[in-house]
Amino acid sequence: MSAAPLVSFVGVKKHFGAHVVLDGVDLEVARGETVAVIGASGGGKTVLIKTLVGLTRVDSGVVRFDGIDLVGADERLLRSVRARIGFVFQASALFDSITVAENVGYPLRVRKGARRDETAARVDECLELVGLAGIGRQLPGELSGGMRKRVAVARALATRPELLLYDEPTAGLDPANVQRVAGLIRSLRQSLHTTSIVVTHDRDLALGVADRIALLAGGRIAWLGSNEEARRGPPALTAFFCRPPEPHP
Question: Which of 72, 139, 140, 229 has the most CB atoms less than 10 A away?
């Protein structure tokens, strides 16, 4: 018998007013697996992963993390789950008024009983993991976009999460930094053995980091398959990646 999945979405539905975003999403993520969720902008990818940390509440369906029902979870339970999940936001979401080290250590400082020396050691460890050792005293505004993204990853790692959620981790980056971030995601999986969900519209990133790829379209998982199957160019993925670029607002 296979082990229970770390993450389960069953029949998940969510609408905002008359706009249906999720219309019965079914998806499981195994422990140690990296799944890329691809789809159009505004198609519900970010909404889906936000349900795992209580930033979005579903209208109906089941959302589970390590067997814990998150749909009916109170704030106390959600806090305990968030401590086990690292979230890398699309815009990095760093605090510009504090140093890189203070940003990375923030999740630890908000916990009761975190010792200053232990926090400092963990910050140094996380910055080294993302290839940014020695920049702790700099401010986020002094960094390039690619470096800011890696700082955001370091912050997500601070609590030693079991699950990493990446929301468009290469958005706005040049090709060289896209490759750096993809390499970072792969290396962290190999070294830390974390489970990851990567939300992206970038074909190369999805194929470069994921064990499986899920296409979210029309509020549902329209296609789901292995990396190898995705590389064969199934019609659903080919149609998605061959669409003309979406206009910027």
Answer: 140
- The reply to whether 67 falls in a domain is no
Helices and strands (H, E) in the chain, number of each type: 9, 10
Q: Which residues does residue 178 pair with via DSSP β-bridges, in sequence order?
A: none
Cβ distance 73 to 81 under 8 Å? yes
- DSSP lists the bridge partners of residue 14 as 22
Q: At what angle do helices 116-129 and 145-157 cross, to 10 degrees?
A: 130
Q: How many residues does the chain have?
A: 249
| Sign of the dihedral through C-alpha 201, 203, 209, 214 | positive
DSSP 8-state secondary structure symbol assigned to residue 247: P
- Range of the structural domain that residue 113 is part of: 85-160
Tally of domains within the chain: 1
Is 30 contained in some domain? no
Strands of the 60-65 sheet, one edge to the other: 19-29, 7-16, 60-65, 68-69
The pLDDT, as a whole number, for residue 245 is 56
Span 162-199, pLDDT tens digits: 999 999 998 888 888 888 899 999 999 989 999 999 99
CA distance 86 to 155: 8
User: In this structure, is residue 8 part of a structural domain?
Assistant: no
**Residue 243: per-residue pLDDT:** 66
Asked if residue 168 lies in contact with residue 199, where contact means CB atoms within 8 angstroms, the answer is yes
Domain presence at residue 72: no
